[in-house]
Design goal:
single chain, 5% strand, globular, mainly alpha, Arc Repressor Mutant, subunit A, two-stranded antiparallel ribbon, 59% helix, 15 helices, 323 residues
Length: 323
């Protein structure tokens, strides 16, 4: 059986070796931790990889249906089909997340326009706003590296969120693209409640040269229990992601910080390649930084891919959103 090509490997590697990559990683950790902490219920909904995936699938199906009247949208069956295909969660987890989203007034259940027998989960403006805020904060990473205004555009351009989600969502599914699964150690960590938050917190303090937060501090700051925080740190220690002293205090977090940075580079590569058209820019920066040590086909002074295009023109489904 032929192994599938890794469609993100080259771009992710170029982003990881960007001369200013440390700054966007720090921005990513601080922005995302702040986003999760601003709304505790959102933190609960997005506290694991599976829950975040469900929200992503719901948004994708919603925006695809808004574009194509023949598409039904986010029915339970369609959501479960995506979850099952990528082995993200069980039916129980999917039902639980959808129930929490309804209680939080983040989705409504309506009849499908094309078939009144079907019920469709539609995101409310509250959920759309939270997701838009998440992308705006994340796209700030590109502002740091590229000098553009992606974060501001995500906040101000009403149709850009839908453009981005469809642009990245369809290839993500059709090509079985993997992000955090690329790094099994942190993938399993992200499956645990509070795992992402603990990893991001340890990475942020590591990059800033600050002492790591204790389990009690992580739990208090991000709305979890001290026992859960201790369990997460214990799992990380047992899987050689951190080193702790006899009192349980983290004394070495270099490995988790490195893996988290690799994860950030890979996530950003999905947006750079399929939504923002920045693959050429990062390849160019990689070559320029290497100077004579590398042979590169990107000519200095050549504009990055798609920078001369504009939003709103007719394009194929595989063409990136121009910047």
């Amino acid at each position: 059986m032929t192994e599938k090509a890794d469609l993100l490997a080259a771009v992710a590697d170029d982003i990881f070796h960007h001369p200013r990559f440390g700054d966007p990683v720090l921005h990513y950790t601080q922005a995302l931790l702040s986003w999760r902490n601003d709304e505790r219920l959102v933190n609960k909904i997005s506290s694991t990889h599976a829950r975040s995936q469900i929200v992503g699938y719901l948004m994708l199906l919603h925006f695809e249906a808004a574009r194509d009247a023949a598409t039904v949208g986010a029915t339970y069956t369609n959501l479960w089909r995506l979850c099952e295909r990528r082995k993200d969660c069980s039916p129980r987890v999917l039902k639980t997340v959808l129930a929490v989203l309804r209680v939080a007034r983040m989705v409504t259940l309506t009849r499908a326009k094309s078939d009144k027998r079907l019920h469709v989960y539609q995101p409310t403006q509250r959920l759309i706003g939270f997701v838009q805020d998440w992308y705006s904060r994340t796209f700030g990473c590109f502002d740091i590296m590229n000098g553009k205004n992606f974060a501001a555009r995500m906040r101000s351009e009403p149709n850009l969120l839908a453009e981005v989600i469809v642009a990245i969502g369809r290839p993500y599914i059709d090509h079985d693209i993997i992000l955090v699964r690329q790094y099994p150690e942190i993938f399993h960590l992200f499956l645990i409640d509070l795992g992402f938050v603990a990893a991001a917190s340890l990475t942020a303090t590591h990059l800033r040269g600050e002492p790591p937060l204790s389990a009690h501090q992580i739990a208090k700051k991000y709305g979890s229990s001290p026992s859960q925080a201790r369990n997460v740190l214990k799992w990380m220690r047992e899987n050689d992601l951190i080193v702790c002293d006899d009192a349980g205090q983290v004394v070495d977090r270099a490995k988790i910080a490195l893996l988290f940075q690799l994860h950030v580079a890979r996530e950003l590569s999905l947006y750079a390649k399929y939504a923002l058209g920045l693959s050429g820019y990062f390849a160019f920066m990689r070559c320029r930084a290497a100077k004579a040590e590398m042979t590169c086909s990107v000519t200095e002074g050549e504009p990055p891919i798609s920078t001369t295009a504009r939003l709103g023109h007719s394009r194929s489904p595989d063409e990136p959103i121009p910047v």
